[in-house]
Amino acid sequence: MPILPAGPLSYGMQLPIQSQSAIYAEPWEAAATPADLVEIARTADRAGFTYLASCDHVAIPRRLAEAMSTVWYDPVATLAFLAGVTERVLLMSHVAVVGLRHPLATAKQYATLDHLSGGRLILGVGAGHVREEFDALGADFAGRGAVLDETVDALKAALGPEEYPEFAGERFAFSGLGQLPRPAQARVPVWVGGSSPAAVRRAAVRGDGWLPQGDPRARLPAQIARLQALREEAGVEEPIVVGAITEPLYVGEPGWSVGRRTLSGKPEVLAESLREYAAMGVHQIQVRFRSRGRSELTDQMAAFAADVAPHLDR
User: Fold this and answer.
1) What 3-state DSSP class applies to 144?
2) Which residues is 243 bridged to in the sheet?
3) Which of 277, 278, 252 is closest to 266 using CA atoms?
4) How far apart are CA 179 and CA 163, in angstroms?
5) Residue 136 exposure: Cα atoms within 13 Å on the Cβ side
6) What does DSSP assign to residue 310?
7) pLDDT (tens digit per residue) in 244-293
8) What is the mean pLDDT of the chain?
9) Which helix (H) or strand (E) covers residue 42, if one does?
10) 146 to each of 101, 183, 198, 204, 293, how far by Cα in Å?
11) Structural contact between residues 77 and 118, judged by C-beta atoms closer than 8 angstroms
12) Rounded CA gap, 166 and 160, in Å?
């Protein structure tokens, strides 16, 4: 696993531009270009961000388009594109709705990505929530939780070291079918997204990491305690990487309205606040910066890495 629970709090970020939900997208992203994505990825690479993440939706129905937008880049294509312009930053699907596709097709895509990037993949998976998307692709929306459970098991087999992986489940079975190239990693880490009881259980039993979605700080300690209890109950001894999505951040004193939920101010003040996550048992935080353009975003990223990150493990 590329990130272990030992050591200082690590930090990564979901890429802007590639998904433009009204919940979090900044106005400037609508006119952004692939060159902007490249510069943001290179900044993360230079600044020591642990990972960059890309979301997954195939098609958005009209009823959700105003809130979600229809801008959702394909995560495999996006991360592969950025793998070619970066050297060390890890590449994560946050999250791949793997129940939309046969696990062998998913394994082929992500094994190739891991191979081409030199072993930098974190496969983040989630159940999905858009019924029309499942219906259009012939996937099982009502049973998506059970499908995801089996898909994760199938993907672990299909992304292993064997050229001819084998798996036999209720919905999927394969053997005698070769897939090269294999992933560069001996074991691709699978991080499970979601904060519902079913998602927390899935992460505890099947995940190498947990990616909560929308849990406020006050709720995280109880969720983490339940995650660890379920993992112990299942007899899983390997450590699990616990994540958290922070409040929006702005390093320094903004000269514009960044919103009341945004944490802003001196680096030491931000670091002190973010260290509370580590005290809860969180190992990695996903950060997001308020910005009015690409340059302000990359400046914020660089300032965070230089002035806030060194204080995260104190």
Assistant:
1) helix
2) 284
3) 252
4) 6
5) 9
6) G
7) 999 999 999 999 999 999 999 999 999 999 999 999 999 999 999 999 99
8) 96
9) helix 34-47
10) 14, 26, 10, 15, 42
11) no
12) 10
Q: How many CB atoms lie within 10 A of CB 138?
A: 7
Residue-wise DSSP of 224-288: HHHHHHHHHHTT--S--EEEEEPPPEEEB--SS---TT-EEE-HHHHHHHHHHHHHHT--EEE--
Spatial contact of 264 and 304, defined as CB atoms under 8 Å apart: no
Q: How do 190-193 and 209-211 pair as beta strands?
A: parallel
pTM over the 0.90 mark: yes
Tell me the mean pLDDT in the region 73-91.
Answer: 98
Report which of 115, 142, 120 is spatially closest to residue 129, judged by C-alpha positions. Answer: 142
Q: How many residues in total does the chain contain? A: 314
Tokens 């590329």 — which residue? 2
Instruction: Average the pLDDT over each of 7-21, 37-51, 165-179, 222-236 and give the range with the smallest value.
Output: 7-21
Q: In the structure encoding, which two tokens stand for residue 284, read together? A: 């990695």
DSSP 136: H
Enumerate long-range contacts of 106-111, CB under 8 Å, 24 or more apart: 106/151, 106/155, 106/158, 107/155, 107/158, 107/159, 107/165, 107/179, 108/179, 109/76, 110/76, 110/159, 110/183, 110/188, 111/158, 111/159, 111/179, 111/181, 111/182, 111/183, 111/188
Tell me if 274 sits within 8 A of 286, measured CB to CB: no
CB distance 97 to 194 below 8 Å: no
226: phi then psi, degrees, rounded to nearest 5 = -65, -40
Which two three-digit tokens encode residue 294? 């690409």
- Write the DSSP assignment of 165-229 as a string of letters: --EE-SS-EE-S----SPPSSSS--EEEE--SHHHHHHHHHH-SEEE-SS--GGGHHHHHHHHHH
Q: Per the structure block, which two tokens stand in for 232?
A: 């112990």
